[in-house]
Amino acid sequence: MDFTFLGDMFASLLKGLPLTLNFWVLSLLGGGTLALILNLMRTTRIGNAVAGAYVFVFRGTPLLIQIFMIYYGLAGFGFVRQSFLWPFLREPYWCGLLALILNDAAYTSEILRGGLRAVPKGAVEAGRVSGMTRFAILRRITLPLAFRQALPAYSNEVISMLKATALVSTITLMDMTGIARAAISETWRAVEILLCAAAIYLAISLLVTRFSAWFERRLSPWHFGRTTP
Amino acid sequence: MEFGKLALLGFGPEGWGLVLVRAGLMTLAVSVAAFVFGLGLGILIAWARIGGNAVLRRLAEVYVVVLRGVPDILVIYLFYFGGRQVVTAIGTGLGFEGPFDISGFVAGMLAIGLISAAGQSEVLRGAYQAVPKGMVEAGRVVGMTRLTLFRRVIAPQAMTTALPGMGNQWQSVIKETALVSVTGLVETMRQVSVAAGTTQEHFLFYAAGAVIYLCITTVSDQIFRFAERRSLRGHPQGGM
Amino acid sequence: MTLTRSTFLRAALAAAVALTAAPVLAQDKKLVFATEGAFPPFNMTRPDGTLYGFELDMLDEVAKRAGFEYEVISQAWDGMIQGLVDGKYDAVVDSVTITGKRLEVVDFSLPYTTGGSTFAVMKESGLELDGTGTFVDLTEEAPTEAAINAIAEKLAGKTVGVHVATIQADFLATYLEPKGVTIRTYPNGPDVYQDLMNGRLDAGMASVTNISAFLEKNTETAMATGPSFKGGVMGAGAAFVVQKGNAELADKISAALKSMSDDGTLEALSNQWFGMVVTPKL
């Protein structure tokens, strides 16, 4: 094995790390916010139907097709190019981010919905009895309980999104995967390059797994001191 | 978009309808093959993690962690670029005369199956562990053999628990097949890209592709739900 | 339970099928050629999946003269050369230009087009480069520098799109990127034109032949501009690609190309597909 090459490769792949992290963090933030809105919408009948259709479409189709539809598909319409959104949609960065946010929101909203369903009715009633406002109940009872419930599933989604960011390389963006693809076509040393890139992604997702396991334990006071969960 | 453009999706000589349907069937075929391959491997991995010795358990754990932590597209690329050397090595090892090649279909199936096996093994392991220990002990007490115990006590219950998770795994497999066009397989994603590039009607063809995927995911979702309802018959929470 | 058993059986069956399908022996005498099927007018795909274009017609004639049976498969550009190196097919015919770097891993036949490369822009952008219609040989230092400086001045701060891992991408990275031009690389060739028309790119770079095919459909809105670059990183023309050391096939193809060039067949094909002569005298 050629260690100088591997070293150089790691160095140049790491140049793509900021963009990968950027997409990852922002799509989780944006997706999480949108997921919350989708769940609030579910309290009305029409909102429920809209949110249901949204989740159905975005979970039922591959992310790659969503990225292409936003990047190449939308730009094909004249009115999109005339609109105020064009300065954003013109840039591959915003198209990629938009696709990731929309995709993440669909999955996260289902995870959150499962968490919300698991919130005991009694807890909410107790809040109401003690005179909390609806917003206070949401903020201090429902969401924290739902979030704790949804945490294991959500940490899977967090790792999925890290992996999903690799697909933005298909619309000319130079994230870690984009750099790896370009390097492959230049040097033809595909296996070494791909293994380097895989190692970096793996290291990050291991960190996340460790952190979320610790976080879950922290948020489960009733598990303290017990050897099995 | 004018409605005249919809003719591009038609079944006439100038329409792409027929090839899109064929590509959709190819997506379905490679998904089924990959899911089944992943199931076989997933069972082995789950078994290694539950009942294997320390080395096997460690190997299985590493496999799951690696495959779940690396982007699918990198795994598929690795499989495409590096897979042939491996196949040739195995082939010559078994005494066949080279050169060896694997078809786009087999390559896609193997790549997606390897990824899916990691997820499926986790679902299966979780389902196995959810079987109440008392039941297993009860079976042992009445003198069931290990096989009988598995066949009549563990498997039926674990299957009920595993079905929703397996449904999710199946849905992921369908969507992951959109990434295998590099192996040369003409499935839905590759076909809509070619059509979009040729006709310059990107939105139309990607939308058509999305509809094909939605059809496959919706129909299979219904089938899984039906199976879930059937498997819940006779359970206290059945008939939900 | 029956479900688990039957699915397991199916898994075993699929594995067995996979194993038996794996060794495909190369005793099949038909030569397999790979092309992209999305690079007009060299190679394109009809709705029914059949391939057509300049290279397909040329290949047909080459096969007749060299006396071999063949079939053509389509393969994405990503991994095209890798597939050849791996022996998935015998040759590539996809407007692949001969370059020193590629010669390290594969071999080429004689070239069949030598058109040079240039830029495409949208007319409404008002962008125009100097030297349209002239040729610049990248092996001649002084004219190259003058031409590059003139172009860099116009394109500084702008975005130019190009097909990934092509000689044009090499050219842009070598000559224009250091001078402040943003380069965007696309996995598929036609996407460059799509984004040019969408207004995401200020200019696109491709071979003269490829650009002329694009302009044919968009005469009203787009145009070619700037000199046509040849030599150096731009390589020595497009040729059939074969595996390293497969001189037998390369020679057979080269001999057929030579005879087609001698009797004017190649020139006629060029006129038919490009409306001009881009083929060399061999």
Question: Could you describe the 3D structure shown?
Answer:
Chain C: Belongs to the bacterial solute-binding protein 3 family. Chain C: Residues 30-276 form the Ionotropic glutamate receptor C-terminal domain. The complex is a heterotrimer of chains A (229), B (240) and C (282). With 229 residues, chain A is mostly helical. Chain A is built from eleven helices and no strands. Chain A has a single domain (3-220), classed as MetI-like fold (Orthogonal Bundle), CATH 1.10.3720.10. The model of chain A has no long low-confidence stretch (mean pLDDT 90). Chain B contains eight helices and no strands. With 282 residues, chain C is of the alpha/beta class. Chain C is built from ten helices and 14 strands. Chain C has helices at 2-21, 54-66, 80-85, 100-103, 141-155, 167-176, 189-198, 208-217, 247-262, 265-274; strands at residues 31-35, 38-39, 43-45, 51-52, 70-74, 91-97, 106-113, 117-122, 135-137, 159-163, 182-186, 203-207, 222-230, 238-243. In chain C, helix 2 crosses helix 9 (247-262). The N and C termini of chain C lie far apart (70 Å). Chains in contact: A-B, A-C, B-C. Chain A binds chain B through residues 56-57, 59-66, 68-69, 72-77, 159, 162-167, 169, 177, 180, 184, 190-191, 194-195, 197-198, 201-202, 204-206, 209, and chain B through 1, 65-66, 68-75, 77-78, 81-82, 171, 174-179, 189, 192-193, 196, 200-203, 206-207, 209-210, 213-214, 217-218.
Second-tier CATH architecture of the largest domain in chain C: 3-Layer(aba) Sandwich
Helix vs. strand class of chain C: alpha/beta
Q: Which class do the helix and strand fractions of chain A yield?
A: mainly alpha
CATH superfamily of chain A: MetI-like
CATH superfamily of the largest domain in chain C: Periplasmic binding protein-like II
Sheet with most strands: strand arrangement of chain C = 9-13-8-12-10-11
Radius of gyration computed on alpha carbons of chain A = 21 Å
What is the count of DSSP helices of chain C, taking H or I runs of 4+ residues?
10
What is the CATH topology classification name of chain A?
Answer: MetI-like fold
Strands of chain C, count: 14
Number of domains of chain A: 1
Kindly give the count of domains of chain C: 2
Largest sheet of chain A: none
Examine the secondary-structure arrangement and name the CATH architecture of chain A.
Orthogonal Bundle
- The residue-averaged pLDDT of chain A reads 90
CATH class of the largest domain in chain C: Alpha Beta
Number of β-strand runs of chain A: 0
Q: Please tell me the overall pLDDT of chain C.
A: 85
Summarize the helix and strand pattern of chain A as letters: HHHHHHHHHHH
